[in-house]
Design goal:
156 residues
Length: 156
């Protein structure tokens, strides 16, 4: 055997093996590696998008929380204002009712005073008539008149 022919045969077999490997084996391996690299890159991109979405969701939730707090503070302020208005309305109504009661009481007092004055006038008129009657029945005497006037004064 010739060593040169063996080396040439081995070289030709090796070349056929390289050609076969590059033609039929290598492309599916490269495609599988590229597909795996693409999936890994997609996964990393999805993870990055997930992180960004998480940050945005946290920011939105913080904004929503702040908005809810502001709305709650606004509602509390409105309820405090309404409470003050209701208290003021009740105070004004109570004052109006008190004024009405006072006016009614004053009117009743005035009527009572008028009745008392009328009663007093009637009484004074009766006393004056009675005094005049007594004066006319008695003799005309200064001493008797002064005593009679004093007794009328005490009756008044």
């Amino acid at each position: 055997m010739n060593i040169n022919a063996t080396i040439i045969g081995q070289a030709i077999t090796f070349a056929i093996l390289i050609w076969f490997t590059m033609k039929f084996v290598w492309p599916p391996l490269v495609a599988a590696l590229e597909e795996r690299a693409r999936k890994i890159a997609d996964g990393l991109a999805a993870a990055e998008r997930g992180k960004q979405d998480l940050v945005q969701a946290e920011r939105r939730s913080e904004e929503a929380l702040n908005e809810a707090k502001a709305k709650a503070a606004e509602i509390i302020a409105l309820s405090e204002k309404r409470r003050s208005e209701i208290i003021e309305e009740a105070r004004l109504e109570a004052k109006a009712e008190a004024d009405r009661v006072i006016a009614q009481s004053k009117a009743e007092v005035e009527q009572e005073v008028m009745r008392a004055k009328e009663s007093l006038r009637d009484r004074v008129a009766d006393l004056a008539v009675a005094g005049a009657e007594k004066i006319l029945r008695r003799e005309i005497n200064a001493q008797a008149h002064s005593e009679l006037l004093a007794s009328i004064r005490t009756e008044l």
